[in-house]
Amino acid sequence: MTFPTVDDLLAYDREHVWHPYTSMTDPVPTRVVTGAEGVRLRLADGREVVDGMSSWWAAIHGYRHPALDAAVHAQVDEFAHVMFGGLTHAPAVELARRLVEITPDGLEHVFFADSGSVSVEVALKMVLQHQRGAGRPERTRMLTVRGGYHGDTFGAMSVCDPVGGMHSMFADVLPAQVFADRPPAPGGDVAAWAEGFRELAERHAHELAGIVVEPVLQGAGGMHVYDAACLRVMRAVADEHGLVLVLDEIATGFGRTGTLFASEAAGVVPDVMCVGKALTGGYLTMAAVLCTGEVARGLSSSESGVLMHGPTYMGNPLAAAVALANLDLLATGEWQGQVGHIGHGLRRGLHGCRSLPHVADVRTVGAVGVVELAHPVDVDKATEAALDAGVWLRPFRNLVYTMPPYISTDEDVARICAAVEAAAVVG
């Protein structure tokens, strides 16, 4: 190690390394990870803690999985990277084939990106270029819903909640999109929400290019779960007004909410779908955008004739190889029982949080558990309380939540629930 001691490493980190959503001049504490295996992280202070976050929802099979490790080793012995402009390779082509095979029927074309946010940028470009190719260049705005989150780049920020979201400070410089009310929770008044959504779409139809939402579960915008029937309303509205329906499955894809893709809960097929996060099992950054033939043909009729995007690391062979190994693991179907089992454990284990002071709501879907507080979380205190309980959590805003790796045992889930409760008490 370059740094003589852990304290030296942490001191340099504090002075020079900018962490996500953290002040550089007054940063929150960080902890040094020295190893990870299964569902556990090993910290420099000697503690081993259960990762209740799946490394921001990506490491669904845990760490050092033999099949995923082997895929990376085998590919690096061949070649680690090659540009995708004018060249191709078997791992990327096979991954595209597999994604077309497992995603909803009709999604035929695959564009590889290097992060979730970038995939949303690509999807928005697809929508706008499709409308230009269809002879409707005046259609430039997106219809979305309150409470959404789609990433941190500028186009993606424009379709995040402009008031309650993390990017509200940029609202004045972002493209002005059209925002409907947040969809109701399961069992809520879908009819009343649908009436408002349809009316808003009708009013702005002349300028709308598409609809973009996270299906069933809104992620970093507030971890809201909503009724899957709302997706059917969106599909009908898109069809009625000639809009492109984009479903952002970056957080929800690959089993997290209980179906392989969250849109399956409503039987809805989007025109464009974004996937990422768990695509590589948490090993490497990679995302993909899938679209229908109709979207591709419309886009190709625009004045450029091509999709105006091309990431340097597009289709990276290492990422594609480990993604294929990840899809092999998912193809066994074992994830379904794992997610169902975790969901049952979270419902049982978090139930007691409902009676805690300052808890506004407790909700679960698939392998996701959320405790919403009536006030902002004290992140430092909540994090330390969870670590004292043997679990790594990363609360934000007014939420203490968990998305455990699918391989978590009953004991792991029970420990995670106890940690969530401890964090909620002090947070």
What's the helix count?
13
The secondary-structure class comes to alpha/beta
What does the overall shape look like? globular
Strand content: 15-25%
SSE arrangement, N to C: HEEEHHHEHEHEHEHEEEHHHEEHEEH
- List low-pLDDT spans: none
Radius of gyration: 21 Å
Strand count:
14
Q: Helical content, roughly?
A: 25-40%
Q: Alpha-carbon distance between the termini? A: 35 Å
Please list the strands of the largest sheet in the order they lie side by side: 4-10-9-8-7-5-6
Q: How is the biggest beta sheet arranged?
A: 7 strands, mixed
> What is the typical, i.e. mean, pLDDT?
96
Describe, in plain words, how this protein is organized in 3D.
The protein is α/β, with parallel strands linked by helices and 427 residues long. The protein is 37% helix and 16% strand. It is built from 13 helices and 14 strands. The protein has helices at residues 6-16, 54-57, 66-76, 90-102, 116-133, 154-158, 190-204, 229-241, 293-300, 317-331, 334-350, 379-388, 410-426, and strands at 33-37, 40-43, 48-51, 107-113, 141-145, 178-180, 208-213, 244-248, 272-275, 287-292, 359-365, 368-373, 391-392, 399-402. A 7-stranded mixed beta sheet has the order 4-10-9-8-7-5-6, sandwiched between helices. Strands 1-2-3-13 form a 4-stranded mixed beta sheet. α7 (190-204) packs parallel to α8 (229-241). The longest helix has 18 residues, at 116-133. The radius of gyration is 21 Å and the shape is globular. The two termini are 35 Å apart. The relative contact order is 0.15. The mean pLDDT is 96. Substrate binds at residues 56, 149, 277, 310, 394. Pfam families: Aminotran_3. InterPro entries: Aminotrans_3, Aminotrans_3_PPA_site, BioA, PyrdxlP-dep_Trfase, PyrdxlP-dep_Trfase_major, PyrdxlP-dep_Trfase_small. Catalyzes the transfer of the alpha-amino group from S-adenosyl-L-methionine (SAM) to 7-keto-8-aminopelargonic acid (KAPA) to form 7,8-diaminopelargonic acid (DAPA). It is the only aminotransferase known to utilize SAM as an amino donor. Homodimer.
